[in-house]
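Box 4.2: Ligand-aware structure prediction
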Amino acid sequence: MHTQVAIIGAGPAGLALAHVLHQHGIASVVLEHRDRAYVEGRVRAGVLEQGTVDLLHELGVGERLRREGLVHHGFYLQFEGERHRIDMHELTGGSAITVYGQQEVVKDLIATRLEQGEPILFEVADVTLHGLDGDRPRVRFRHGDEARELTCDYIAGCDGFHGVCRPSIPAGALTVYQKIYPFAWLGILAQAAPASAELIYAYHERGFALQSMRSPTVSRLYLQCPLDDQIAQWSDDRIWSELHARLDLADGPPLNDGPIIERGITAFRSFVVEPMQYGRLFLAGDAAHTVPPTGAKGMNLAIADVRVLGAALAAHYHAGRNDLLAAYSATCLRRVWRAEHFSWYMTSMLHRFGEDDGGFQHQLQLSQLRYTVGSRAAATSIAENYTGIVRV
Ligand code: RFL
Ligand code: PHB
């Protein structure tokens, strides 16, 4: 089997890249380890920047997004028992975010790709990469009972943080930057109308909490928990009582409870490798970088990488230019590091660190929160980072 670009991973990065390439008349094959139902059912991100929404429309997969996506012009920062609105739209001169589940994006991308008759091979196993530093790289894998080989011009490593592409690069070729945080998020999806139509990021003495949503009848809620907690330690009652304690205000409507339809614990990690390329292998999305979810940037970065990679491959195939491919890593890393900083900043401002410093860090966090909601300059900074900086 031969193709122009072999894409490893059918997450947002791999699927969006397949569509960008298809629009440019470039052939690709997507190889995915999991089955379709698993990939489509994985509940993760929910906040799309305008640039992400624009790309999905350009790719012709934005119809359901236009109907079902919830456009938000503001969000709340809550601390010391008060809720303060950040008016992103007004502060940035018209930017907004759209709330639409990552798995809905993935479903839309898969459905359209299969309608186009373009290949996605689900449930492939034992993927290995060969000949990355030559001009005819190969991907070997198992599909069903068959051992197969895919030759190609380029490989796109879109297989997430735990994939095989990044580890296929020889040790020493990459510089790794990494920070691990001393807590995790417990996230739930609940059949319950969101009490607030806009997201609430709450800093509370019991720890961070976030109210988000997926629709007018489904809430997405998160709370900071210890790093080594197991989901079995959290009964429904315990989850709701902790969410109420951190998110309800004395003088406002409480959260609405409802049946919990999905739950999970997510560890936090800031991670970047440089460069995002080795020979004919280009890494995109979580395969190259991860951010803690507090800034809502992970999927948006994955889509931003793919836009750059798609344009660079199109310039190679259609104009014989290799300068954009050569600049791929440096171009992406400018945005990646901006998002790394913003995600670290939001995480640092909004979580309890349990530090033994007599409350010094806690006072700094409160001061930063008061400044952020009280100063137009500080509020503008958070608003433009949150909605997505266009020029980085
Ligand atoms: P993915 O989505 O992990 O997809 C990688 C795909 O590769 C497959 N794979 C392999 N396939 C073949 N062979 C192998 N050896 C393979 N190994 C792995 C996997 O099965 C998978 O299908 O990476 P991608 O495409 O780079 O997308 C990244 C995003 O998924 C991620 O950054 C976001 O979910 C992060 N994130 C958020 N991002 C946002 O932009 N906004 C948000 O609001 C937001 N909230 C979140 C988040 C992530 C969270 N979790 C659970 C980590 C909230 C949470 C709780
Ligand atoms: C979500 O809706 O899943 C979500 C929203 C904002 C974040 C992270 C996740 O910062």
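In the box above, the bound molecule is P-hydroxybenzoic acid. The chain has two domains: 2-72+96-178+270-346, 179-268+353-387.
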